[in-house]
Amino acid sequence: MSKWADLPCDVLLQIIHRLSSIDDIIISSVVCKSWQSLVNSFEKPPLPPSCPWLMLAEENEQSDKSNKEQSQTQTRSFFNLLDTKVYNFKLPEVAGRKYFGTSLGWLLTIGTDLHINLLHPLSKHLLSLPPQATFRCQFKCYIRPELLSRVFLKKAVLSKSPWNSATHKCDCDCVIMVIYGQHGKLAFTRPGYKAWIDIKSSRHGYADIVFYKGKFYAVDFNGVTVVCCFDGNKKARAKAIVPAPEGINMNIQRHIQKYIVESSGDLLLVSRFRGGHFYSKFYSFEEEFDYKENESNDEDPKDDFEDENSQDDVEDEGTKDESDRKDINDKPYVTIRFKVQKLERCTQEGSEFKYKWVKVDSLGDQTLFVGDSSSLSLTASSLNGIKPNCIYFTDDDLYLFSWTHNGGGSDMGVFSMEDATIKPHYSGQSHSFFCSPLWYI
């Protein structure tokens, strides 16, 4: 056979079915168009890669680009950590859209039309979710759709795959939970729902979510952790189970990003500390919009306790004056270290909380992946080339992107828990002002 593209479909199917890993199947789909078409025709969405792939930013962002340049954005590049190679895939479904890595191989996307979708890039399954206008909390003042699509959603996590491969239909038992809005609130929906539903909570300013042992847990910017309790299909409330960790100055929370991740059966809190030019000169600079709610807040404050340190950091890069712009540089912020803590039951007499955070000095053979995707823990020894006892991170603070010349994407690397050093995991450059590289998991 002179050309791989000329292989009969039945022979090609036999080859693909004998591949030992989903990574090989993904790579085989880029051999030629006929191979890609066959892989995409599978009714059951393929599993995600065994190790997260780094989904790189668009080569040309859509604003003010020619038609030729816009067509180039239909191809997206993925960096494979295991073989350190870059693979290209045709993904017109994400061109010009803000997207988040959820889990199980799915991306949540939102465009300037403010429509929200779940996309499986490998199978091309595309599921529509309720649009942005159905969220309860909205900005009072007008914000351009282009900006609103970039800043409205913060994080997205799934409880299970939203596609039922047995029925070839949406799985209505899947719960999609997000952090949204200027004040970082929690909301959820399911396939088939017409709107997003708020999680009843007196807190806001949430930073990350995880689905752990059948329940959703969320952590706010102070480190307070809540569990989400569902009262029927369309009601849910958040209950605080862990107070903010001790020993962290609440006055510098803007420097610290929080993640929450399941690792070897434990629940971990990961704190990411940033420093650099931005924090030394612009820490007090913030832009605020007036805010309103579509409905009155009928939450019972006894369900939780109040948060006085929410993050109000939505800003249009076009609002900076010239005096601000002269201080923009190539790398105004940088990650300097991480701290990891584990959830343990609290045995202290008289404590109002059942759990507490305890410092972790080593991850052992585990490796963590954090950023604009669902936080993930993997066993390093099962993945050739992945470093154990390390944290792989991407650049995920959208607010800081406008303080750079080329957008976010520089603050990425591998943090070693053993010696606190940071080394690169991707040697190339990939920048964006609205959607920097993230982990596809």
Automatic annotation (TrEMBL):
Lineage of origin: Eukaryota, Viridiplantae, Streptophyta, Embryophyta, Tracheophyta
Pfam family, one: F-box
InterPro entries assigned to the protein according to its UniProt record, in alphabetical order: F-box-like_dom_sf, F-box_BR-signaling, F-box_dom, KIB1-4_b-propeller
Ranges where the record places region Disordered: 293-327
Residue span(s) of domain KIB1-4 beta-propeller: 78-416
Ranges of Acidic residues composition bias in the record: 293-319
F-box domain location: 4-43
Name assigned to this protein: F-box domain-containing protein
